Amino acid sequence: LCAEAPSPAAVQGLRCSTLYTCTPRPTSTTAQAATWAGLSIHADPRATAYRVCYHPGGLEDRYGWHLVPGAITIAQSALAFTVVDDGGSSVIGSREEFELRVHRALFGSFTDAGDWEVRLVRAHFGCEILQERSMVVTGGTVEDVDTKQWDVSCCCAYGDQSPRECEDGEYKVCVAEDGETYRPIPAADGSQTLTIHPTNSLIDQGLFSGQRASARAGRTQRVLFKGYDLPQATTGRLALMAPGGDGGLPECGGAAA
Fold it and tell me: CA 54 to CA 26: how far, in whole Å?
């Protein structure tokens, strides 16, 4: 189980680039224990149990992972969203607008649906960030005591307010039941984000930017980078840059390490 299962998307604060290379390091350690702080698990539309796996370090052995006794059970999310037309958590990027519905589980909470507010933010941000500028959320129609629906329009490219195709990427759906305090909610299909898929006209051929990987110093390791419509032969190159004198990252035009 531990050797094959990747870390679920609902778990925040852990990142594994391979089956045996994960970050971050423990926040604190003793002779008997290791502690990781700052981790969180987002709720799913149904109650979910998570098992904890531990690797003692040292040899890069994928089967060195061991199952820790017990489990962490996260209660179901009180709210979940769906894209109205598709009934799922994704939108095709060629669309200029779509409808977003938020539904509450039975007895999930007791707030007034009329007070609910929603915002969409890029997935790598938290819900305290303001609404994504390329989208406008309007409407807010209460369908019943447990359901509210909004209209989402895509626009506003470089100050242009005219409608345009939605920008592809992953977005958190953040809801404030009191109209002020926003928190992320999952999709009814279990996804943690709203995904807008790119169209061929909106995406360039090549590697995606902003990717990260982990590797152990002094070891040979295979790392994977994702892209779109990659050719079998490419002129692209990968450079590892030495940190700057102050420990910061250098400009890409510097000397490669």
Answer: 12
